[in-house]
Amino acid sequence: MTAPGRTVEVPAWLVEQNLALCPCGCIGKRRKGGFLAKTVRGGSAILQQVLFGEDVAGASGLLQRIDPRAKIVGLVLLLVTAGLAHSMVTLAVMYALTLGLAAASALPVGFFVKRVWLFVPIFTGIVVLPATLSVVTPGDVVLTLWHWNGTAQGLTAQGLTAAARVVCRVAVSISLVVLLTLTTPWVRLLAALRGLGVPKIFILIIGMAYRYLFLLLGVVTDMFQARQARTPGVPKHDREARAFVGAGVGALLGKSAQLSEEVHHAMVARGFRGDATTLERHRFRAADLAFAAAIVVAAALLIWGDHVLVPR
Amino acid sequence: MHIPDGYLSPQTCAVGFVVAAPMLATAAVRVKRRVKTRNVPTLAVLAAVSFLIMMFNVPIPDGTTAHAVGAALIAILLGPWAATIAVTVALAFQALLFGDGGVLAFGVNVVNMAIVMPWVAYGAYKLVSRGATLTAPRRIVAAFLAGYAGINASALCAAAELGIQPDLFHDAAGAPLYSPYHLAQTVPAMMLAHLTVAGLAEGILSAAVLAYLQRANLPLLRANHPGVPVDAAAATAEQKRRRRLRPGVVAVAVMAVLVVLTPLGLLAPGGAFGEDSPADLQSSLGLSAVPTGLARYSDLWQSALFPDYLSGSPWTYVVSAVVGIVVVGLVVHGAGLLLVRLLNRRATEPRERVEASR
Amino acid sequence: MSHAERPHAEPLLVCRDLRYSYLERYPALDGVSLTVHRGERLALLGANGCGKSTLLKVLDGLVFPDSGSYTAFGEPVTEDTLEDEQMSEGFRSRVGFVFQNSDAQVFSPSVREEVAFGPLQLGLSRAETAGRVDDVLAMLGITELADRAPFQLSGGQKKKVAIATVLVMSPEVLLFDEPTAALDPRTQFWLVELVERLGEAGKTVVHATHDLDLLHRIADRCVVFSEEHRIVAEGTPGEILADRDLLVAVNLVHPAAGSVR
After folding, report:
1. Second label for C20, Cα 20 to 30 Å away, from B158, B179, B299, C180?
2. Closest-CA residue in chain C for A263?
3. Minimal-distance CA residue of chain C relative to B35
4. C83 Cβ under 8 Å from any chain B Cβ
5. CA distance B47 to C163
6. What is the C-alpha separation between B325 and A105, in angstroms, rounded?
7. Per mean pLDDT, which range of A22-26, A191-195, B9-13 is the poorest?
8. More confidently predicted of C155 and B323
9. From the CA of B230, how many Å to the nearest CA of chain C?
């Protein structure tokens, strides 16, 4: 499944469908339709996305060969650079840089571009659209749409700049994060976080949580599919449906409590005393140092260039 | 409410990490200090549950669906510290595993959803369910309100963080560098969505799960409700426990309120009453003679700490806000400790007298 | 070949009059006494819920009896004595437990880390651990799984990984809870062969099972639990399987079913 060197074919579902979960993760989205079907669909999407990620991370490419610690440090550095950039040119150069890195890392570039630009218009484009209007961002009106109390109202130069800048910044930031996650197997990412000083207890919890995510995902999907099978037609959104979701999460919690008890026994049986040691065998090579140095130089150049382009 | 990278200035993100780090460190220490090693698997499984809860679609009465975060529920079942860790890990999944951004903004997201949300929810739950038995319907109401209050407090924080961006960070032409909306726009927009839809989803989920556990799995519910009688019969048997003032909780609550209010300082026109500098006094009040004492001390303060904290760069405002909040929190904590000690002394005296008379 | 007939084999694990109840209400063990000798292969037989899994957990120092005593390798095993680091390390490295639910036992993000968990906790160096992990994966024929995530494994593969996690610590005593449950016939056969080889290597093996078909191959001695959570019989597999009334009484065979074997 993760044979190195294999060219990665992008499965159709990844490009067509929405991202796993609601990509923002948290805001309550209003969507019409059956809550059962959507929950079941969300579950399988998570699993598929992770499997796809493992495939790409196993391919051989530039970023796959770099030590994850160097990649994480580089990512943060570039994210800060993107955050500090004022000029659209700087952001455009950075986006080109991410595309180059993606191509060098055997990532399907078409997929990479779609992955980012499916997210950005939906969650950023629409959101910043009203900000181009003078009612939100006052400034020099470049396109008059209406008059209010005798003053021209419409799109302002400042508003347009601001909106374009936010959209580009979000696109660059997400491209950078996707580069890291798609070229690093999850296990090595965890080890790198540990190497960068994240407390052991968190690494242990994150690692186990990842492992049980899939087990519990199966439980949830079964539960909802069983209900779906017994619910002909469109599921109702009534009191009973809400009680079912409550019972579903409740049963999930009960099952989790039982599971954590068993896991606890399994850990203690093998000598766990509250402080885990992990197997880490990473050594910084010259290539990693060179990569880190290149990122530092690139970030410095970008920031310098940005100051030249937009003096402040 | 999950803020992706690019909407917040790096400075704001840094403040997010500064606020989140001590809370997470405390949570990790508390988890480790407990003798039982079982906390590690419990938290791991809960983090997975928290991630999955974001996947559950909750049917809302108006015929649509929304999904919840589950922070309130976990705080009720296993305490706010556990919820802080579980939601933090779930957010780490979102940011790293699924590459949906939020790496620089991770600290801020942790503050909103893993700290403010469970703690506000827990506070609301404790407040409403105080004195209720474990199977009382009032606990269901309390769980609904906990979820509702928690997610709305969290949304308010996110709105505040986004809303201060255009005022603090803009270029020479006045175009905002990051999120372009002002507080006057972010707060209503976020609150409308959360007061009506997301708040309901979180509330319904918390209440429905609590109701289910009351019927089907009381032992799970009992884990974080030590000493709460199961039903009315057990309640009469149990003596009413004395209400206790917890200085730590009060101090954290005060700090949370201050954090939420901080951005308002930027909106407030003019200076605060009684904080005028000597120069202002002279010009606005027409005082020709500044009191000599004030003149002497004002120099000292100006050079010492944060000179003119509103006129400098955004950094100074943020740093001074953090320092101020921490200082206030420490003072409240200290005062609370003192008060508790005094109350305890007074409370033990009469009891000793009663025992002596037996 | 048969290890049970050694009359003066050294007692390793000794239980006296164990009593244990879940949540202080549901009894699981009601006065159980048992001695496990060095080098023997012992099967704990009984219907579901008879207490055999609980007994294994007591033997592994995971739950502690409400009353009665348990000594392992001459040392009393209690919650207090296991608090001692040396005692805990010694005991944990000498007794290994293969759980019924491999999902609970395989908790790390990758197979390699999973197998390395035990030796690392018990203080082996990273280099030595890595070597042992490679050896044990090769021995069980699952080297190609090393970098897989557990959720990508089949049930049989997970069981093999679970067994690898225990064998890597080279324990003297191996406890198996329902080892053959939910395995396909080929993996069952593989497991039986493994147990036979472990027995030949001098390991002490204790199984909890209700699988009577494989009994004669995996055990030299059996103890039978009643549904009242007590031990009601003891003997060689041949003797136990011949006693049909006993097996019906403890609900291991259905009265209407034909004879065993």
Report:
1. C180
2. C104
3. C83
4. no
5. 27
6. 46
7. A22-26
8. C155
9. 16
Q: Give the SS3 label for residue C182.
A: coil
In SS3 terms, C22-72 reads as: ECCCEEEEEEEEEEEECCCEEEEECCCCCCHHHHHHHHCCCCCCCEEEEEE
Of A21, A35, A247, the CB nearest to B65: A35
Whether residue A18 lies inside any domain: the answer is no
Q: Which chains does chain B touch, 3 or more C-beta pairs < 8 A?
A: A, C
Question: Position B118: which residue type?
Answer: P
List pLDDT tens digits, range A128-155: 777 777 777 777 787 777 777 777 777 8
Subunits adjacent to chain A (3 or more Cβ pairs under 8 Å): B, C
CA distance linking residue B23 with residue C51, whole number of Å = 44
CA distance B42 to chain C (A): 12
Q: What is the mean pLDDT of each run of 10 residues along chain C (261 residues)?
A: 54 91 80 91 89 90 90 88 85 91 84 89 87 91 87 86 91 90 84 88 90 86 90 89 87 71 46
Asked whether the beta carbons of residue A270 and residue C169 sit closer than 8 angstroms, the reply is yes
Tokens representing C207 are 């199984």
Contacts of C83 in chain A (CB under 8 A): none
- Integer CA distances (angstroms), A29 to B53, B199, C26, in order: 14, 11, 46
Number of domains in chain A: 1
Count interface pairs A-B at CB distance under 8 A.
Answer: 344
| Residue of A127, A164, A161, A168 whose CA lies nearest to A142 | A161
Confidence band of B64 (pLDDT split at 50, 70, 90): low
Residue A237 placed within a domain: no
Q: What is the pLDDT of residues B307-318, one digit of tens each?
A: 444 445 556 666
**CA–CA min distance B36, chain C (Å):** 11
Place of tokens 């540990």: A194
Helix axes B39-53, B71-78, angle to 10 degrees: 150
Q: Nearest C-alpha of chain C: how many angstroms from B78?
A: 19
From chain C, the residues in CB contact with B44 under 8 A are 107
CB within 8 Å of C15: residues ≥ 6 apart: C32, C33, C34, C35, C55, C58, C59, C68, C69, C70
Indicate the residue of C88, C109, C165 with minimum beta-carbon distance to A207: C109
Can you tell me the mean pLDDT for B136-162?
91
Of A54, A270, A281, the CB nearest to C92: A270
CB contact under 8 A, A206 and B89: yes
Q: Is the separation of the CB atoms in B72 and B121 below 8 Å?
A: yes
User: Does some domain include residue A273?
Assistant: no
Give the per-residue pLDDT at B245: 55
Regarding an ipTM greater than 0.95, the answer is no
Sequence-ordered list of residues with C-beta below 8 angstroms from that of B298, at least 6 positions apart, any chain: B277, B278
Query: Is A263 part of a structural domain of the chain?
Result: no
Provide the residue range defining the domain that includes A155.
44-197+284-309
Distance CA A46, CA A18 (A): 11
Residue B213 makes CB contacts below 8 A (sequence gap 6+) with A250, A253, A254, B77, B220, B221
Q: What percent of chain A has pLDDT over 90?
A: 12
Q: Which of C92, C107, C112 faces A271 most closely, judged by CB atoms?
A: C92
Query: Which residues in chain C have Cβ-Cβ distances shorter than 8 Å to B42?
Result: none
The tokens of B239 are what? 């003596």
CA angle C139, C141, C143 (to 5 degrees): 100
C26 and B CB contact within 8 Å: no
Statement: residue B132 has pLDDT above 80: yes
Q: Using one digit for the tens of pLDDT, what is the confidence trace for A94-129?
A: 999 999 999 998 888 888 888 778 766 666 666 677
Give the nearest chain C residue to A266 (CA atoms). Answer: C105
Which H helix or E strand runs over A88? Answer: helix A88-104
Distance of CA A254 to CAs A17, A221, A257, Å? 33, 16, 5
What is d(CA A95, CA A171) in angstroms, rounded to the nearest whole number? 8
